Fold this sequence. Notes:
The protein is an alpha/beta fold. It has helices at 65-68, 75-86, 91-107, 126-137, 160-170, 185-199, 218-227, 247-259, 268-274, 282-287, 311-322, 327-337, 339-345, 367-373, and strands spanning 3-10, 13-22, 25-30, 39-42, 47-49, 52-57, 110-118, 143-150, 174-177, 203-207, 234-238, 263-266, 292-294, 359-362, 377-382, 385-389. It has two domains: 3-50 and 350-389, Roll (Urease, subunit C, domain 1); 52-345, Alpha-Beta Barrel (TIM Barrel). The protein has 14 helices and 16 strands. The strands form three sheets. An eight-stranded parallel beta sheet has the order 6-7-8-9-10-11-12-13, sandwiched between helices. The chain has a four-stranded mixed beta sheet with strand order 3-2-1-4, with no helix packed on it. α7 (218-227) links the parallel β10 and β11. α3 (91-107) runs parallel beside α4 and α5 (160-170) runs parallel beside α6. The longest helix is centred in the first third of the chain and has 17 residues, at 91-107. The protein is globular, with a radius of gyration of 21 Å.
Amino acid sequence: xxxxxxxxxxxxxxxxxxxxxxxxxIAALHPHIPSTAPVEFDGGGSLAFPGFVESHIHLDxxxxxxxxxxxxxxxxxxxxxxxxxxxxxxxxxxxxRAALVLRDAVTHGTTVxxxxxxxxxxxxxxxxxxxxxxxxxARHAIDLRLCAFAQDGLTQHPGGETLLDEALHLGxxxxxxxxxxxxxxxxxxxxxxxxxxxxxxxxxFHIDFDLDPTASALPFLIRHVIETxxxxxxxxxxxxKLSVLPEDEQTAILEGLLAADIVLTALPATDLFLMRxxxxxxxxxxxxxxxxxxxxNNIVNPFTxxxxxxxxxxxxxxxxxxxxxxxxxxxxIWDMLTTSPAxxxxxxxxxxxxxPADIVLxxxxxxxxxxxxxxxxxxxxxxxxxxxxxHRPEMKAPF
Length: 399
């Protein structure tokens, strides 16, 4: 063994055990592994898991609030402000702002992240260049994946598809669209899915981000995904429109999403801020058997003027707003931060013999307690490499 992490619990095995690591993988899970490793860490009864999976964030436009302020606080205003700013983004600027957020995410227990990166007439490929470099620099601590993204529409911008195609050739892992910023939403969906199929990658759409109960783009997306055989390879974010639909219409769309195996992602901080308290009905979709994810979206910019890259905070906020309080519901929310987004990105998310030694410890006896009490993470390893530690607080004057 290269490393033994002692006295931890698993969600599926609450009794204390040790985790033995060898050559970057989990080699043993036993109550008492003989002391054969040069490095040992005492988990002190904490919960071990493979780390949080952040499936929807925008590193390229994080930490820009000081450049444009928050006046307006509407989706259209936020898009306009960022569109104006990103024309002046440099590779170094994007890299440095994104690195601050990425380091915070790692120390809050995130081991896998998908960031959208805007590739268009204003940003060109500069942000992609910055984030590809950052992904390489940080690979010892986090698996950073990039989704080439058409934030400002596609069909109205000649050359947009060529840029997305080039981004995928350069190393982007997936492709994303934003139908509500396009004069022809259905055509954008067709083109994005065609690009995804051509590159054999996943597609991810920001969609139905409003509170108008008419003109949903989801029925077309569902039909087109099924017609093209792309079930299981598409995710959607926001979809706040679902929250204001009559129950029968909402049910029909959720059943369609389930049939197409589309992952539904809510972004609590942004959705609540811009949509005045409305979010997609994740709990209902999850109980129907749908794959759901909770994610951060934006940090300290016009879309979301706060944030610290603590993904567990999104789970706690979502539980608070939706009234989820039972252990069963809170464990389901935990899955929305871990196993469900991991399945969406196609990454392993298990503590098991033979699995990658991606291990995070959180100061909680179980997943429900972690979400309910927003318990702190204590330390983490990526492929057996120790990436961070957060010490438990110590009272100097106990009572």
